[in-house]
């Protein structure tokens, strides 16, 4: 089974298979006051979002949400691609929409997610 490592200091998410890095993605992480929590979690759900809601409003989660076993936190896309690589979220891990869609297609529910400094 694949696993995910999020390195906050690098602001990168790594997809591992057999303990080997097979993909690396840039991410945005939590602001100083709403830091991304470190620890070991699991993906508990995956919810695709249309890029915009009725009325044309963009979703804050981009095109995909993958919820973590820590309530209220997840890995998701963004409607603001310029935020990737920065400390801007309320603790979630943001990815480019194309990257989070690719990742969601490669990892099943139950995938381990390790977040470290």
Automatic annotation (TrEMBL):
<feature type="active site" description="Proton donor/acceptor">
    <location>
        <position position="76"/>
    </location>
</feature>
<comment type="similarity">
    <text>Belongs to the YkuD family.</text>
</comment>
<keyword id="KW-0328">Glycosyltransferase</keyword>
<dbReference type="InterPro" id="IPR050979">
    <property type="entry name" value="LD-transpeptidase"/>
</dbReference>
<dbReference type="InterPro" id="IPR005490">
    <property type="entry name" value="LD_TPept_cat_dom"/>
</dbReference>
<keyword id="KW-0808">Transferase</keyword>
<keyword id="KW-0961">Cell wall biogenesis/degradation</keyword>
<protein>
    <submittedName>
        <fullName>Lipoprotein-anchoring transpeptidase ErfK/SrfK</fullName>
    </submittedName>
</protein>
<keyword id="KW-0449">Lipoprotein</keyword>
<feature type="active site" description="Nucleophile">
    <location>
        <position position="92"/>
    </location>
</feature>
<keyword id="KW-0133">Cell shape</keyword>
<keyword id="KW-0378">Hydrolase</keyword>
<comment type="pathway">
    <text>Cell wall biogenesis; peptidoglycan biosynthesis.</text>
</comment>
<keyword id="KW-0573">Peptidoglycan synthesis</keyword>
<dbReference type="InterPro" id="IPR038063">
    <property type="entry name" value="Transpep_catalytic_dom"/>
</dbReference>
<dbReference type="Pfam" id="PF03734">
    <property type="entry name" value="YkuD"/>
</dbReference>
<feature type="domain" description="L,D-TPase catalytic">
    <location>
        <begin position="2"/>
        <end position="116"/>
    </location>
</feature>
């Amino acid at each position: 089974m694949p696993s995910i490592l999020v390195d906050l200091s690098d602001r990168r998410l790594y997809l591992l298979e057999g303990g080997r890095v097979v993909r690396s993605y840039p991410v945005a992480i939590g602001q100083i006051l709403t830091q991304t929590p470190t620890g070991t979690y699991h993906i508990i759900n995956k919810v695709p979002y249309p890029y915009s809601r009725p009325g044309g409003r963009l979703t804050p989660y981009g095109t995909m949400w993958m919820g973590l076993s820590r309530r209220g936190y997840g890995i998701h896309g963004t409607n603001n691609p310029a935020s990737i690589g920065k400390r801007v979220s309320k603790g979630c891990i943001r990815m480019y929409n194309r990257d989070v869609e690719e990742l969601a297609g490669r990892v099943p529910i139950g995938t381990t997610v390790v977040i470290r400094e």
